[in-house]
Amino acid sequence: MSRWFKCDLQVATPAWDFKRPTDWAGDLDHPDSAMRAQHREAFADLYMAALKQRGIEVIALADHHTGAWIEVMAAAGRRAGVFVFPGVEVTTGTGSDGVHLLLIGDLNKTERDIEILLARTCGFDEDSPPLNPSTGRPAPSPRTIKEILDDLPPGWLAVAPHAFNDNGIASKKTVQGTARWQALHHDNLSAIDVGDISSNRADRAWNQRFRTRDLDDFPCLERLAFVSTSDAYSVDRLGMRFTWIRMAEPSMEGLRQAFLDYDARIICDWDERLGRYPERNPNLVTHPWLESVALGGTLGNSRRGLNLEFSPGLNVLIGGRGAGKSTVVSAIRRIYGDTTSLPDKVKADLDEFNRRIFAEAELAAIHHLPVSGETQTAQWSASLGRTTHRGSTTTLTSFPVRVFSQKELYERVTPDSDDPYTASRHLLSLIDEALDASGDGRRTDFMTELTKAENACHLLVTQHLQTEQELQQRTELHARVNELARQVAHLDNPATQERRRANEAVLNEHERLEATAGELERSIDEIRNAVERALPAAESAGQDNPHRELLVTIRSNLRNALLTALSESASRTADARLSRREGDWAARVQQARDDDTEYQAELSELGVDPEQYFALREELTTVRQRLDALEALAEQSRGHTTLIANSWQALALVHGRRTQRRLRFIDDVGTRSKTLRFHLIPLSDWLGWARTIREILNLRSDGYIEEVRALARWLWTGPAASREERLELWRTALISNHYTALLGRINEDMAERIRPAWWSKLGKLDRIVRIRVATTVADDVLTMRFLKNNGDPERDGDWHDVLHGSPGQRSAAMLSFVLHQGTEPLILDQPEDDLDTTLISELIVTQLRESRWKRQLIVITHNPNIPVLGNADRIIVLESAEDCIRVKATGRPHVGPIDLPEVRVDVQNVMEGGVHAFIRRGQQYSNEVSSYRQAVAQLTSRSSQSAGHTPPGSGPQQV
């Protein structure tokens, strides 16, 4: 696996002009060779300890015109775990003071190799010694920088140090000369150090344009790597400036590959990208990622299991047919993914594959959570399903991983003549999954909110209907009261009616008073119990935290105040009870009772049946009480309309919030991609609504087809401004089960398509079903357009609906769609299918390179542009052998970036058809390649001539 190494590629040693620490007591030039070697070794260890303290893992020695300390430093580096690249800083013969050049050799280079390089390539000999005999300072080489670069032997890399200084290669004043301009554009110059970005030099603005590669007169800026080095001549300066370089392991090939693709492999200490990483260390990623996946148990296509490890960045799986690439993808989907939203055809194929391959498998993966980087293990088996170990607990797996095959993406936007909104639903499903993965509106949260809102609507509507049904009894009860009153009046002695009514009034008032008192006493007891439960007596606050002490005091005061108020109310209630049982009121009640008993005796003497009389009186009282309750209910029901309207509004808000989340999401994707545009129409998927209604009503496949569709169109595709009015009519009709008003508002064309049998069907529905239909809301409709190749974003005609694009255009648009969303791991299975090579290299590779900085990518591919031009952090070579799928290995596993020779050979053989085939294709392209080289040469020649007369960056030409 490649990783980022913190490098300082220009450090000096005591071999030349190095300032030794003031507290260093050793003698590096001791006359005794053994003592000298001992002191130098000790100093080298101190040197390495300073590098380790600053986190430097890789250095390049850059003494002027000497390699005298290479062996000492290399040995110390091995002891300390620091990689030491031998190198030398050369003063060339270009310019009055000589342009400096840093030449870095492979790790095994020696002092002798440096001497040969200085002599043969740089031209230093007896007539031109590397040091000026009179001053001891480095002497300019007899050879120009261009001549040295022309003759640079294999195994060496050239870097231009302190480029903006007077003896640098690219200062504003000196680069006007043709020689430096040509050297800057030399193929053998791999990188330059553009200096400290915080420098306050007078030419800082020009330097900044150079760093941002914004100077038209310098074509080299498109390919030339920038590095940051300390150029340290003292221990305390070591690693003060540095460069992060991504390699499998420090090697000449690792450096070469990094310089070839600086954008993917090099981060200078001044690079803004470092700010996104903890401690400014690009190895410390904060996005979620998969560390490994293990395919165990019994696999349907391999005798043995398979274990793979991944990088947090771009991973590419390659291999021949049957090597198990798609098996790995399916396993990851099995552990983490969701197949419910897949197109039917893709889901059917995947289910069959899983049945054959994973029926008895045991799958596992290790993943890292975002931000914290916490490690968890997820597992899957047919018996247990998806589970994740979180410390001591095991729960359902919820770690978000997005898995897509190119076939799936293509199918999601394949037009459907029977349902034009199929693609919209697939796109919205992808958006909802992405929002779920990001935590910005989880689907479970939406369903919980939706269910709560629907239940609220159902409850309020049910209560309203029950109330209306009960209130229908009022007419009958009024008639019964009149009838009973007449019967009681008929039995009453006219002379004693007033006496009876007075007694009844007192006794009824007594009953009401006692009932009220009983309710009050029960309420006091219930409140006291509630206080004891909610605010039990607390322990002492303690003195450990004044904030806690304050809260405990407030709580105690609240408890005491409530209990005091309750005790006072209970006491006053008891006093009120005693007051009612003594005095005038108690006497009045007792007198009414006595007089009522006497009245019954008098009725008996008059020949009136007291039982019949009192039964009528009791019924009359009961009916009147029921009628009073209904009148109160009628008063209460007047607020039902408002409550129901509020519940519909709450339901609409749930859908509205989801729509707003979707809008924010597609706005972000459109902004980031620059090649995609979206248009979302809220609540307009009338076909989806019609299908849901048919399912709720359990209609036959041929039943009421036109009726449901006509109603759906009227409700959801009419003017948005009047949609709420239409929905209110529809819901009111369903709630009341009366459809006359609704029929009066449906336009004539729609009404003709709806047979009377449909309204009859609705009228026979159970109330619960009708309310469920009323709460069903249409989904949004989303369209996606893509910018045609080389199109003008400002010209509307250059944007095309994805449904009307070619297979390649649809696939490219969908890949762009999924690549520009989220930070969760993204797995792509053969994204290059249906795409021409231009789209792969210019679109997909570009977007993979951009996405790798903020998310993990695992790509299965047969196209070499993806691992090579994408500069994969980790290429995994799979093969099928001995009835097994496995990682290819010859001595060591073929896993790593392109700088590993085994991996590079596999990419050539598996993806390019071998080196011979690659070269043969190049030969067949000979005319085009030659023309390209001639054009580049002419361009360089013109730019060189311009650089000799016009200050770089000031000319009007575009190179």
Q: What does this entry show, briefly?
A:
The protein is α/β, with parallel strands linked by helices and 959 residues long. The chain is built from 32 helices and 29 strands. Strands 14, 19, 23, 24, 25, 26 and 29 form a seven-stranded mixed beta sheet that branches. The chain has a six-stranded mixed beta sheet with strand order 3-5-6-7-8-9, with helices on one face. A six-stranded antiparallel beta sheet has the order 13-12-15-16-17-18, with helices on one face.
Key phrases:
alpha/beta, Rossmann fold, 7-stranded mixed β-sheet, 6-stranded mixed β-sheet, elongated, disordered C terminus
**Radius of gyration of CA atoms, rounded to a whole number:** 43 Å
Percent range for β-strand residues: 5-15%
In the predicted model, the low-confidence regions spanning at least 5 consecutive residues are 947-959
The pLDDT mean sits at 87
Q: SS-based structural class?
A: alpha/beta
The helix content is: 40-55%
Distance between the termini: 38 Å
CATH topology of the domain at 3-280: TIM Barrel
Number of strands: 29
Shape: elongated
The CATH H-level superfamily of the domain at 3-280 is: Metal-dependent hydrolases
CATH architecture of the domain at 3-280: Alpha-Beta Barrel
Largest sheet: 7 strands, mixed
- The tally of helices reads 32
Query: What's the level 1 CATH class of the domain at 3-280?
Result: Alpha Beta
Any overview of this molecule?
It is a single chain. Among the domains are: about 5-280, Metal-dependent hydrolases (TIM Barrel, Alpha-Beta Barrel), CATH 3.20.20; about 290-400 and about 825-925, 3-Layer(aba) Sandwich (Rossmann fold), CATH 3.40.50. Residues about 945-959 have low confidence and may be disordered. A hairpin with a 7-residue loop joins strand 12 and strand 13. Helix 15 runs antiparallel to helix 16, helix 15 crosses helix 17 (about 585-605) and helix 27 (about 805-820) packs parallel to helix 28. The protein is elongated. The strands form six sheets. Strands 14, 19, 23, 24, 25, 26 and 29 form a seven-stranded mixed β-sheet that branches. Strands 3-5-6-7-8-9 form a six-stranded mixed β-sheet, with helices on one face. Strands 13-12-15-16-17-18 form a six-stranded antiparallel β-sheet, covered by helices on one side. About 35% of the residues are buried. It has 32 helices and 29 strands. With about 950 residues, it is α/β, with parallel strands linked by helices.
